[in-house]
Amino acid sequence: MYKQLIRPLLFQFDPEGVHHFTFRAIRFLSSIGFAGIFRTIYSVNDPRLERELFGLKFKNPVGLAAGFDKDAKLYNELSDFGFGFIEIGTLTPKPQDGNPKKRLFRLKKDQAIVNRMGFNNKGVFDAVENLKKSHRVLIGGNIGKNKVTPNELAAKDYLICFDALFDHVDYFVVNVSSPNTPGLRELQDRKPLTALLKELKKENTKLAKVKDRKEKPILLKIAPDLTDDQLLDIIGIVKDTDIDGVIATNTTIARDNLKSDILLKEEAGGLSGRPLTKRSTEVIRFLSQKSNKAFPIIGVGGIHSAEDALEKLDAGADLVQLYTGFIYEGPSLIKRINKAIVNRIND
């Protein structure tokens, strides 16, 4: 129904406007009793899907990637579609509008999206208010820096977000890989990234002691455009800083072998969706093999089918996340992936 009826209708309109409309529609439908219907249709409840990583128990290994519910407005309602975890953000200390519109583009022929949103969000403290209601699902907090903050002061922004979210999320993701904030990817270099992660680890230990709680897992989200040498650096950084894992990968700045019109291909921003499938899997496999599976990996990028998800799991991912595939395929994709995982266990 989604691909035959709902998606063709939604795709007639501006993608950013559709995103906001969809949020309102899901919230309304959930409020009038559809939440249980969504859970009945899309959820796969099977203990064989459970995964335990960095001290957290995930009810299934399929999550929603950051960028969809930036301000933590709809995480419980979205969990009704069968997600095992929801990642909010990217959040920054101060609210920011992001880049000028139009900044979100569908590449239908490629089943892809180009976005140059630029960390548009209402700020971490607004998200904290939204997170104060009870959670029906594990929540990850994806954190970044404000556009106006120079890289030499970036750690302060990440620490503000970390402190604000500590009591309200289950794990953290450090985003230094978005291509839409000028200079942000420079923080992926070994020296600044090591320093940033060590600061966050130190803060994690301090807050856990003060609050008499466990430390929160910290993961690093990386770009798919890193070279093999840079990926080896990432493995070394994870070891040196003792963070808990890696999310591979963010969007790409590459535009290889696209079928869409030249004007769409030339839009600046990060590309996600089908064209990223192969590269993100290659990055996952490289990190897993070269590190000898030394740390957990969450695989994201171009998952449009159950087979895509299984490939990422086979390559070394422990969990997977959806974004563009969720938009193109609809919520039934979550169910198809979880059922495929169960069926593989049965076989």
Automatic annotation (TrEMBL):
Manner of cofactor binding, per the entry note: Binds 1 FMN per subunit.
Bilayer disposition of the protein: Peripheral membrane protein
Residue ranges of every copy of the Dihydroorotate dehydrogenase catalytic domain listed in the record: 49-343
GO cellular component terms, A-Z: cytoplasm; plasma membrane
Cofactor(s) the protein requires to work: FMN
InterPro entries on file: Aldolase_TIM, DHO_dehydrogenase, Dihydroorotate_DH_1_2, Dihydroorotate_DH_2, Dihydroorotate_DH_cat, Dihydroorotate_DH_CS
GO molecular function: dihydroorotate dehydrogenase (quinone) activity
GO biological process, alphabetically ordered: 'de novo' pyrimidine nucleobase biosynthetic process; 'de novo' UMP biosynthetic process
Active site: 178
Keyword Disulfide bond appears in the UniProt entry: no
EC number: 1.3.5.2
Keyword terms: Cell membrane, Flavoprotein, FMN, Membrane, Oxidoreductase, Pyrimidine biosynthesis
Flavoprotein in keyword set: yes
Catalytic activity: (S)-dihydroorotate + a quinone = orotate + a quinol
Family listed: Belongs to the dihydroorotate dehydrogenase family. Type 2 subfamily.
Protein's job: Catalyzes the conversion of dihydroorotate to orotate with quinone as electron acceptor.
Subunit structure: Monomer.
Matches recorded under HAMAP family: DHO_dh_type2
Name of protein: Dihydroorotate dehydrogenase (quinone)
Organism encoding this protein: Arenibacter echinorum
Gene: pyrD
